[in-house]
Amino acid sequence: MNLKLLESLALGEMRYFDSVGSTNDLAIEWANQNAPHLSIVIADEQTAGRGRLNRKWLTPKGTALALSVILRPEENTPLSRTVGLGALAITDACLKLGLAPQIKWPNDILLNNKKVAGILVETLWDGATARAVIVGMGVNFTKEALPPAEALNFPATSLESALGKAANREEFLREVLASFIARLPQIASAQFLNAWAERLAYQNEEVQIIAQSDEITHGKLLGLENDGSLSLQSVNGNRLTIRYGDVSLRPSA
Ligand code: BT5
Mind listing the pLDDT tens digit for each residue in 132-146? Predict the structure, then answer.
């Protein structure tokens, strides 16, 4: 990949690899050393890409974007909103292409109700202080990026399928990073939260939240709490808060 297009962006340092295990793993290693704020790790292929809960994330060579951004958060950075920062950056880049992206809370980006991108946020702690936050983003460009349907628990798609033509990876990457950099100073604002909430999929629809224990919570999706938690209205009218964690969201059958 030619990263010349990124030169004008206010990034930290850049590391590009043809093939890695996981860009998040390399970013964590680098953040444990001396990676400056807004440094990035990019790879053309991941052989051990990770989703949440050690699920696998597929990134075959030349088919996708695999990117990890290293943040050195300030004391008052609302860490629980960093997944929203990744989601807004990817959806901003999709909007520039004329697409209609939605955010499937907490960490998926949908096009035509199918997953085109996933976000994995990992935080490195020094006691109670966050030393670094790694925002990992994987975006499918071609249909070859997709795992076989039987390996999926939610349908997947690519930018190419949604656009009907190939999307330029370098330009998309630039848009994602430009938006990420522009929105970061606003991360604590109401405007940021509103922009994030407006892009949520299934607004005012009945959804189910599946916990890791397989326990299912049903409710109508209302929006976001201040910390980025999901707000639902239960069948008996109570307001429920679902925290970012090991949960999956699905439309109600
Ligand atoms: C995610 O996890 O969606 C987070 C994915 C984050 C990937 C990026 S790539 C750069 C950085 N480096 C990494 O190692 N990771 C990050 P989760 O919500 O747990 O979804 C994982 C599930 O998505 C898997 O169990 C599969 O069912 C499905 N999946 C795997 N690869 C996919 C792909 N390419 N497209 C769509 N779905 C996929």
Answer: 999 999 999 999 999
Measured distance CA(214)–CA(248) in Å, rounded:
10
Ligand 1 lined by 143 (C-beta under 6 Å): no
Under CATH, domain 4-198 is a member of which superfamily?
Bira Bifunctional Protein; Domain 2 (3.30.930.10)
Atom of ligand 1 nearest to the CA of 55: 25
What's the pTM? 0.97
Find the mean pLDDT for residues 10-19.
98
**In CATH, what number does 206-251 get?**
2.30.30.100
Counting residues of the chain whose pLDDT is more than 90, the rounded percentage is 92
Do the domains at 4-198 and 206-251 have one common CATH topology? Answer: no
Query: Chain-centre distance of CA 101, in angstroms?
Result: 12
Measure 58 CA to ligand 1 centroid, in angstroms: 7
Asked whether 152 lines ligand 1 (CB < 6 A), one says yes
